[in-house]
Specification:
By secondary structure, the protein is mostly helical. The chain has two domains: 72 residues, Homeodomain-like (Arc Repressor Mutant, subunit A); 154 residues, Orthogonal Bundle (Tetracycline Repressor, domain 2), CATH 1.10.357.10. The protein contains eleven helices and no strands. The chain starts with a helix and ends with a helix.
């Protein structure tokens, strides 16, 4: 072999070497799996985010798979590959919506707060979460129109809510033990009261603003209502 030929064979471009390494990785399987998994996760998240907006804005009946695929910037076949169809995707959106709020609540770490501090934190958090995530209330409204027909298909929904009930029970029991709360309060009723006071205001503020000639979308009104929820809940809990 001539020196020229040896030099030529040794001077492969970086691009060629990179392509060769990539090909070797693809054959071996392991390193190439990670990018594919990351791509799959990104695609799944993009589909769920797009579907959440579509279902929240248009309801189950009005939502279209074509529109969801367009929002997610994927083709429709990819959506079916990941979720199987509209019903399964809608159930995944419901589960994802509940996972998001329950995960955020868990970070409040209520078991390590005083009863009054923890309860106030839960009330304020719930109110702010509803304000920051109007799509959550939209999804719940849609599912209630269907009388929870799709939610009942979820195998995860009950286990998602058990920790929340346990956390509120702990606050109530500790509060009753030190005389801050009256004994015998139902944790589910307490949470329903918190959620109801917040969601009713937000889902009806346009009609209520018109009826009572008050701008309930004004920041001062919103802040005042958040404090009102706190006052109502603590008035009920007071021994």
């Amino acid at each position: 072999m001539t020196e020229a030929k040896v030099t030529k064979s040794r001077s492969k471009s970086p691009e060629v070497e990179t392509e060769a390494e990539t090909a070797d990785q693809a054959v071996s399987g392991a390193p190439a799996e990670r990018p594919r998994l990351r791509d799959a996760e990104r695609t799944s998240k993009a589909i769920l985010a797009a579907a959440t907006k579509e279902f929240a804005e248009r309801g189950y009946g009005g939502a279209r798979v074509d529109a969801i695929a367009e929002r997610a910037k994927i083709n429709k076949r990819m959506l079916y590959h990941y979720f199987g169809g509209k019903d399964a995707l809608y159930v995944a959106v419901l589960e994802g919506s509940y996972v998001a709020i329950r995960s955020a609540e868990a970070r409040l770490d209520l078991s390590h707060r005083t009863p009054t501090e923890g309860m106030r934190e839960l009330v304020v958090f719930t109110w702010k979460y509803f304000l920051d995530h109007p799509e959550f209330l939209g999804i719940l409204s849609t599912e209630n129109l269907h009388k929870a027909r799709f939610l009942k298909r979820s195998a995860r929904i009950f286990e998602l809510h058990s920790p929340l009930v346990a956390e509120i029970s702990g606050l109530l029991d500790r509060g009753a033990a030190v005389g801050d709360f009256r004994p015998g309060c139902d944790p589910v009723k307490i949470y329903m009261s918190i959620a109801a006071l917040g969601s009713f205001f937000l889902t009806n503020r346009w009609t209520l603003s018109t009826i009572f000639r008050r701008n309930l979308s004004d920041k001062s009104e919103i802040d005042a209502w958040g404090e009102h929820i706190v006052d109502v809940i603590f008035a009920y809990l007071r021994p």
